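Table S4 entry, Glycosyltransferase RgtA/B/C/D-like domain-containing protein.
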Amino acid sequence: MKLLNKTLSILKIIFPTTKFEVLIFLFFVVLYGANAWFIAENFRIVYDDRIPWDAYFSFDNRAIVQTGGGFERHPLSNYFFDFIRDFALWMSGNHYNSVFRLVLSLFSTVVIALANVSVFKYLNNIIKLPLKISLLILAFYGLFVTNILLSFTPETYTYTLLFLSIFNYYSAKKIKEEKSVSFAATIFGSVFIGGLTITNIVKVYIPFLFEKKIFWNWKKIGMAVAKIATSVVVFVFLFLLRLDFNFQNFLNKTEEQYDKFSKPKITPLWDMITSWFFGGNVLFSNYEIRDYHTKDKTFYYKALFMDVYTSAIPYFFIGLILLIVILSVVKNYKNKLIWILVISFSIDILIHCVLKFGLHTSYIYGGHFVFVYPLLLGWLFFSYRNKTISLSILYGVIMMMTVYLGFNNFYSLGEFYQFLETYYQ
């Protein structure tokens, strides 16, 4: 009976449980699903066996679907994608056709819709915002570039966004109830989150820092260390199993990848950070088409990338978002749940903006951190709950930003369709 109750409580965290959450889930499934269906049915961009990498915005769909990606960055992702690929092949009659692409895309649609439900649960159950504010934030967040692109893209980032959104909601719920993250949640969080992108494993352990009076209780410290140590042992064992216990190969590949993805680019550092790291995950910028080919030069294709912003309005828009983030932290600096989000976000800032790993294509990394924006915005609304005028102004600002975001991103999505019609029919 106890096991059944635990299972039900886990399912309630992952899936919609109220009628309103079901409606939100179905809304996003229909919205994203229509786009995913159109792209998968009519174009070969989602999966083409001839294209090894970077067909659009540097997503490596084929490599991820076939192998789970490089083990040095995605150590356990092959276990996830073996199942997804085999299921898609079974549905398509063992053919890499439009049905295969459609299954992959609809998996992504459902995953991003569930991730959005997790964000709504956090806004509604943790921050306890009024429904109209939660829905406005969710509408704003639902239009982000990351959500639009990942809703039809079979990538590690798609599933990372779901797992991180769920884990943040779960850990916030535990901390609010003054309970600790369980052994099972720590292990599964490490395997699922760290397994898809190795650097994200650190984010699973952040909530332990904010358990009630943990630094004044040796028993609590010991229990936290035991949970973390156990999860690390399980993770390392599964990782080494994939490597056939050849750890030196991992070190060599990691150094190779860092050298490859951290070289300075012609674009100024500040513009890469603004346009691609902070902005590219939210607001589409202009596109750049490049000529690509396979290593043996037997197949040539066009690849689409994001350029930096070219007008003042996008920079102003991203500046407003950064102001909201900073203001939310300042207004809620005594709130431990805020600092979980801040530390989590800081890890990505360190990796991409300071160490410059993948900064030139950091608009693809939104699945690692973009959910932080709506949650911090939610906490900012919470801080103004007793100030009617400030609350109304903030609500009006977010509404205008949502309208602009929608127009900009749907227009850019139309340009993306034109690219597909020209090169990927």
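Strands lie at 287-293, 300-306.
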